[in-house]
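INFO batch 0412 | record 1 of 1 | parsing
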Amino acid sequence: MRLFSFSSPVTRAADDRGQPGVETRKRVLWLSCVAHALHDGYTDMIYALLPVWQADFGLGYGALAILRGVYAGTMATLQLPAGRLARTWGTRATLACGTLLAALGYAVAGLSGTLPGLCVALAVSGSGSSTQHPLASGAVSRAYGRQARGPLSVYNFAGDLGKSALPAAISLLITVMPWRHALWAMSCIGMLVAAVIALFLPSIPRSAAVVEEPAPQAVQGARSGFSLLLTIGVLDTAVRMGLLTFLPFLLKAKGISPAMMGTALALVFIGGAAGKFVCGWLGARMGPIGTVLATEGGTAALILAVIFLPLAPALVVLPLLGLMLNGTSSVLYGTVPELTPVERTERAFALFYTGTIASGALAPVAYGLLGDRIGVQDATIATALTALVIVPVALMLGRHLRETGS
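INFO prediction complete | emitting tokens
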């Protein structure tokens, strides 16, 4: 018996022009959002587990850093191979298998009794999560074509929901059951999501989004434009991670209480989640370059405001700062498919996410070393200056977008 009927013009997989139907596009978007929420939640769930593992295994901070690095490292380095694998297996099969592998990794972690065992388990889970960003982003891009910018912002926002929900869920579970049982429960959720993806994620042919063959000069311009876009993504991530490294120390110097520190950081993260959603749609209306200029200029101005304002006004601007910090990312993700041939969408997203994840790992180290030399306040000013460096790069990107007609 068929699970779905595509006989009507609304629900069938493709319309008369070979483009995905409305219902198909919606299903691709929402299943991609579920995958994003699960995998990003799995990634940040480690933070809630580190204190438990430290107490249970007697681990030092260096060993805990290794655990986090193993997961992030495998996830970042395997994104390009995941994109290539999808060209052979297909997006649906590769994403479903990756989700299952990520879930099984946490199940194995629940069986581990040593640090090497945990490292192996997290490497397995991280390798599974490497499939999500390039493949789900590529699926949404192919499904929506030129209208993908808004849906990609929804997809991007879903990741923040997962980052909030799954760490909170595991923290709650470990208060009522052993942490190993809690991990098995979270693993079962991942297995269920993998099954749903395998059964229900529509297959969008790469040819479905191809409208016309671009001219050779447009292709060359798009390649140059993608390099500029990746540069902006790397710098934007560096600004965000650098500021978040120093923000607690800035607020502490202003006299914030330990109880209020968590609230202050939550204000930034709430603003950041809203920024991913709002700025993606804003970019679809006022254009990516105008939005990037506004968010980066606003980021620089608000960083300086947080540095020099007293505590109470600084807390007031934190949600807006979070919106500006995270808002650029949705605009950038939405621009990736505009600079990429449809058959190379997964590879483009894999390159983009690999660059930004690497920047997120290295930027705190670089800014931290700078802070040791010139102090926290001056190093934070350096993050604002980095945001301003993005402005001329964005203007150069705007020229490429006009040349390619994107």
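INFO post-check: Residues 216-253 form the longest helix (38 residues).
INFO record closed
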